[in-house]
Amino acid sequence: MRIAKIGRKLSEEHKRKISESERGKNHYNWKGGKSTERNLLMGRREYKRWRTEVFKRDNYTCQECGKRGVELNAHHIKSWAYFPEFRFDVRNGRTLCLACHEKTDTYKQKGKRIKTKKLEIANAKKETDGATTGETASNGTQGT
Questions:
Q1: Spatial distance between the Cα atoms of 42 and 49, rounded to a whole number of angstroms
Q2: pLDDT for 25-45, tens place per residue?
Q3: Rounded distance between C-alpha atoms, residue 63 and residue 74, angstroms
Q4: Percentage of the chain with pLDDT > 90?
Q5: So where are the chain's domains?
Q6: What is the structure's pLDDT at 131?
Q7: What phi and psi, each to the nearest 5 degrees, are found at residue 71?
Q8: Which residues of 20-32 are buried (b: 16+ CB within 10 A; e: fewer)?
Q9: 73, β-bridge pairs
Q10: Contact criterion met (CB below 8 Å) for 114 and 131
Q11: Which side of the chain, N or C, has fewer Cβ within a 10 Å radius?
Q12: pLDDT of amino acid 6
């Protein structure tokens, strides 16, 4: 019976019903509305305009190795996550090829791991400094 329906024109109402039946919770890939703020913002015109302006300014050339004609990424110099006020500032962007972008400290989750590690080091240093200087703990006893 499927063969008989190939090439058959669907009414606008039928197309609308098919479309609605595959949206949101009804979509096979629905994961409970887990879109991140970043994913939502990167789909907006403002982000796409920022990305295009960065590419144009850099003449579609990787600013690290000078390659052209390869997959390019618009890289945020100041991290997207930690500097939201600079997200759409063209001066905070540079064009990098994928290989050079992967080498940056902030590529994907690498930036989060680095910040976490720096915080761990800073906290460990504070604890060590407190123990060696004999600072008192919050309960009035001397630190160990």
A1: 10
A2: 887 777 777 677 777 788 889
A3: 10
A4: 34
A5: 42-128
A6: 57
A7: -65, 125
A8: eeeeeeeeeeeee
A9: 96
A10: no
A11: N
A12: 77
What burial class does residue 115 get, using C-beta atoms within 10 Å of its C-beta: 0-12 exposed, 13-18 middle, 19+ buried?
Answer: middle
Structure tokens at 14: 């039928």
In our burial notation (b when 16+ CB lie closer than 10 A, e otherwise), range 48-62 reads: eebbeebbeebeebb
Six-digit token string for 101: 């972008």
CB 64 within 8 A of CB 96: yes
Mean pLDDT of the chain: 79
- Check if the beta carbon of residue 51 is closer than 8 Å to that of residue 90: no
Contact 83, 109 (CB under 8 A): no
Kind and range of the H or E run holding 79: none
Token pair, residue 137, equals 């703990």
Report how far residue 20's alpha carbon sits from residue 14's, in angstroms, rounded to the nearest whole number. 10
What's the whole-model pTM score? Answer: 0.54
Contacts 24+ apart (CB under 8 A), 99-103: 99/65, 100/62, 100/63, 100/64, 100/65, 101/73, 101/75, 103/64
